[in-house]
Design a protein that fits this description.
Helix content is 31%, strand content 16%. Helix 3 runs parallel beside helix 9. It has nine helices and ten strands. The protein has helices at residues 53-56, 60-77, 84-92, 105-109, 135-145, 149-152, 197-208, 226-237, 264-276, and strands spanning 2-4, 23-27, 96-99, 114-116, 119-126, 132-134, 184-188, 215-219, 242-245, 258-261. The protein is of the alpha/beta class and 283 residues long. The chain has a seven-stranded parallel beta sheet, covered by helices on one side. Strands 6-5-7 form a three-stranded antiparallel beta sheet.
Length: 283
Amino acid sequence: MTVEAPSELRAIAVPAILRHARLVVLTGAGLSTDSGIPDYRGPGSPARQPMTYQEFVSGPAARQRYWARSHLGWGRMRGASPNAGHHALAALDPHLLITQNVDGLHEAAGSRRVVALHGRIADVTCLSCRRTSSRAALDTRMVSANPGYAARHAHAESRPDGDVELDDTTDFAVPSCESCGGVLKPDVVFFGENVPAARVQRCYDAVDGLGSDDALLVVGSSLTVMSGFRFVRRAVRAGVPVVIVNRGATRGDDLASVKLDAGCSEFLTALARVRGAGGEIPA
């Protein structure tokens, strides 16, 4: 069943199934668009070809291309702030919040029980010694090694992966690990990598703990990749209702108990308002 939500904020757009249910929430890139971070597959989103893990480890030229683009994008992404949807989810405080986003905005908004399925762009790991360090510290080193680089490419278009559109990156200097001189990689799951098993199991356990009176709520995800879609399939097999809120079609529409074509921030604000009123529609 598809429900057309009104354009204005109205609590009546919240399905009855969500008003009292214990929730596990899965979020995607669509939730962060109101924070100025581009979406992956929403209406009007440009085509993208993200770098795979295999390409990243293939040699210095690929890593130079990745880090040059990411250096410029990071300077913009780290300035993003949580939007009304992030704050509403923090107030809702679901049983578990699973996010496919790497921007850290759920944590910044105050959400407590968060699994960052694909990692966090604010962390960096060394592929040799496995030391984890701060992306902000690496950015300082990159600025020092590439003076004026950001200013020269200020008009490069931002992309949803936290990078920018940039063709020529041959003049970018890539710092190595300060501990061992190894290759540095953002601590995020690239295409071609697997989400750590323990991380996936925590999400499965949360979904498995839901009953027929509870719900898995999907917000702002097209569910195109299996890393998120598997939790929808798991819930459906267990008889747990699935509610999907997204602009445009998703891979899980045929499995959903309810599908709403609505804005993430508006819907989550309405949901928090309803649940804060004990499940009743506030006057």
